Amino acid sequence: MQRDQLADFLRRRREAIRPAEVGIADGPRRRTAGLRREEVAMLAGMSVDYVVRLEQGRSSQPSTQLLGALARALRLSDDERDHLFHLAGHRPPPADGVAGLARAGLLRLLDLLGDVPALVISDLGEVLAQNRAAVLLGGDLRGFSGDRRYLAYRWFTDPDAQARHLPEEREHQARQIVADLRATAGRRSGDPAVTGLVERLRAASAEFRRLWAEHEVAVRRADRKTFVHPVVGRVAMDCETLVTPDQGQQLLVLTPADAEARERLELLRVLGVEEFPADTPVR
């Protein structure tokens, strides 16, 4: 761990970010260059004291989870993120879709979208980042571990995952999930992360085995789905998917499909409904 270099790098990256880039108002009385330490702490979900100690070279070695949170908060590029890991004495995460870190450019787009629900998803269906509008609409999907990180695994092994969608839409959603995973498996042929997930799904779900055997292939780009929210009820959303050039990550943008959906989404924003747990069943 190179404490002095790590401290200097974090301080300079914090000072280089304009507050507006991360959705913070840049008022006329602001004297701090870039972000304040407390703002970095808020964005990264850690204590201000720890951020101070990191910048002063007095901290213990940060975990990879903390480094990932700092990389997201400071909107680091892939190269900057890897440098951060090296300075902290850790091996950088792999540069594929299951790295667990959303790309800096996609995070900036999340900030710019504001009240439009949006998520960054890996090519295996792991939610890497989501804005607050997406959390209000569909719950916080970032806290899962193991195979439950992946949408496909939750869909075919957890009844509550399907319960959030209309019964008449579930077969369509299931087919899309499997077809998208099939496309990823073809593109990442021989990758143990992909083949292992597929084998565990085949062992866990007869429905998955049935759909996987049909060999349908389709990368999800546009769709319409109805969310069943526990407070405002049904919300029909159009889903547009933007894929990175290497197809490793996707930006999923959700827009209201009709006037009723716009009203219910606006009601959610006004109410500021507390984020319900991702495993909370809805009716």
Protein model, in words:
A hairpin with a 3-residue loop joins strand 3 and strand 4. The chain folds into two domains: 3-87, Orthogonal Bundle (434 Repressor (Amino-terminal Domain)), CATH 1.10.260.40; 104-271, 2-Layer Sandwich (Beta-Lactamase). The protein is built from 13 helices and five strands. By secondary structure, it is of the alpha+beta class. Helix 11 packs across helix 12 (206-213). It has helices at residues 3-16, 37-44, 48-55, 64-73, 78-87, 104-113, 132-138, 151-157, 159-163, 167-187, 192-204, 206-213, 259-271; strands spanning 118-122, 127-130, 222-229, 233-243, 249-256.
Produce a short descriptive summary.
With 283 residues, the protein is an alpha+beta fold. It folds into two domains: 3-87, 434 Repressor (Amino-terminal Domain), CATH 1.10.260; 104-271, Beta-Lactamase (2-Layer Sandwich), CATH 3.30.450. It contains 13 helices and five strands.
